Each structure stands twice: as C-alpha cells, then as structure tokens.
Please model this.
Amino acid sequence: MITLVKKNYNKYNNEFESYELTRNGITMCVPLDEANTDYQAIQQWISEGNTVIDNGN
Amino acid sequence: MAIDKVTSAALETSTNQPNFRNIVINGDMSQAQRGTSASSLTSSGYHSVDRYTTSIINLGTWTQSQSTTVPTGQGFATSLKMDCTTADASPAADDALFIKHKIEGQNLQYLKKGTSSAESTTLSFWVRSNKTGTYITRLQDSDNSRNISQSYTISSADTWEKKTLTFAGDTTGALGNDNGSSLELNFWLGAGSTYTSGTLNTSWNSITDANNAVGQVNLADSTSNEWYVTGVQLEAGTSASDFEFLPVDANLTRCQRYFEKSYQMADAPGTSGSGGSYGLQFGGATANIDATIIMSTRKRATPTLTVYDLAGTSNKASYYTGSWNNGGSLGGSRGRETYVHVDTNISSSSIVAWHFTADSEL
Model:
C-alpha cells in the first residue's frame, strides 16, 4: 500500500526527474516513464485524490 | 536426400536445444529472486517466484513459496505453492484470487492475433491440490479488453496431474507491438459472484466479469488448502509439446529483463549482509560519492530503483568512517534501462556500499 509519494529533483539541474515512493515500508525511486507500473500506480493514487509532496528543488 | 520440411520440433530433436517456443517465462518456477517464501499475504503483487504476480482481492491470507514438491520423474525441481493461512469460506461478490503471468506484446506478434490467420495456443501445466474440483484458466488481451477462459478439473487430492488446454485464435484485436502487457495468463483460485454468476466464456469475447470464472472452487475456504503449479507452457498451435527446459542462465536472464537484484541469489532483497553488494572506495574521505553500475540485463522499461544499506534499510547506503555505518542518506539515485546510478548524500566517508533492486515488471 502506498503511504508516501514525494517529487525528486536532480541536484545538478534542478529538474523534476523521479518520484520517491514509499510502499509497504520500502522507499524506492520511480522514474517518469509511463511504461513503468509503479509510475502508473502513482498516477492512479493521485487520481484517487492523494497528494504528492513537493518540497521544491 | 531431399528434406521436405524442417519443423521446430524436428529442429529441437536434432539439436537438443530449446527454440523458445514457450511463451511463458520461468514456467518451471526455478527463479525466485524476490525470495523463496512470502507469508501473511493479503495484497496483490510479485511476492516470490519470478514473473508471477498474485491478485488477492479480499480473499484469504496466503503464504506463497517456491516449493520443492514436484511431479515425480518429469524433470522439475521447483513449483509455485499457494498455502491458505487465514480462510474465507464466504467470499463477497467482488472478492477474487488468481495468479497472473503477463506477456509483452512484442513477443506475441507471431500469434497474428486480430487477423484471419490468428493462431490457436495451447496451455499445459502440472497442478496439485488437496482441494479437488473445477478451476479456471483465462487468457486476457489487455490491449483490446477481450478474454477467453477454459476450465480444468483436479480429480485426485494431493496428486500431481498434467492439464492441457487449447485456446482458439482470436481474429479480433491485434496486440500492440511494444513493451507493454498485452496478454495475461490467469490461474483462478477463488472468486465471488461478480466473476461466477454468468456462463463461462470459452470463446474470445469482450470481457464480461460474470463469465470470467464460472464454476471456480474456493481455495480460500480452509486453512488446510494448498495449490501447486509447475511446468507452465503456453505455445502456438493446438497441441502441447514437452516442457521446454532452459539452461538456468538463460532463464535467469529472461527474468532479469523484468527484475534484477544485487543480492546473492539465495538472499531476498532487504536481507542484512554484504554478499553481492556494490561499493566504491576512495583513498581518503570525501563527500557525496556517486557511482554508476551497469546491470546484467537491459530492462523492459525504465526500472524502479530501490537502494538498500547493508542492514537492509531501503533508501539508505552504508558508509565507512573508520568503522562501518548504516543509514547514510541518498540524493537523487535513479535507474535506467541499462544501469543504476546511486548518488549518496553523506558528508564524509572513504567507502560507500549498497544493494539494489531494479524492477520493470509488467
């Protein structure tokens, strides 16, 4: 179960480059790739009204 | 001497080599990179044996494992086992339990689905359960929302039985020639009335939930219940050939297109220890050490990267400052189809070390 999603920014060019996803107590880096099923799950999670944490770059 | 025709079966016989006629990857259940057993399962996901995901929708609690219980004399060493640990004898309408194997469309173009020349496919597998009765298998075309089901019967309790089922070709709905999930093979193990109240759909049709799993027994109705499967083979044509055993390296490489780990094969991700870990050492202490590791196999798509320190904590790295420490921060690590890049955010260390998993499952 997804408990947390944060935006990750590239530390060199400050571009939004991935999501940090915490699910079932494990934190992972999810690419911005529509073919990635974790990316798809995050989009579904967002569409259900959940909020992505964005602390900026 | 004239040679009239070289068939794939003849070629295999003559060379004693596989020809990759099995559409299913890891059909002998020999690879289990995520671990050989996962317990207390109540949610869907990839839990143990590679390439098989489990949909658990409010129907029991399960231990899934890579078992060494296998049919005698068939050459198999492992099977996938589902063991019910909390029963649900009265499924609600929408409850369901099934094993799924997802297949990329670009590996299925030779089935010519969606054309007048569409190929039939034949599924064969060995199965065993204490729970006798009717079970359902299904092929689902995820690109066109179509499916077809077939039933099989487990006749004798606790006895391995080989099942062979042929699915007609589908002249409607071409499969995408891409890296997405186009076809799913489902093994139903339990279903509520939403999926059982109609007539079993034994020809290709648009999906009607009520026709998906008609007659399916409820494997979740007792904690005594267990179900095993191995030797899963799906192939073009109307007959089943002998199971196509692959060398272990070939099978592992095929699995690693979808999931790869740095850990030793016997260690599940998150296991504490350094075996198989990657590291980088400098002559003196420095800050924010980065490293790029080329993976064994190119991934299906950009993978999800999980980095673990040597204590098994995710999103952390281990680091050396005169002694080893765990819990070092990361700063922008990422996976790509061919490599992982680990970017630490540790103020001063001379060595960093970590494990990783890269997941691009369907």
User: Anything to note?
Assistant: Helices of chain B lie at 8-15, 193-196, 248-256.
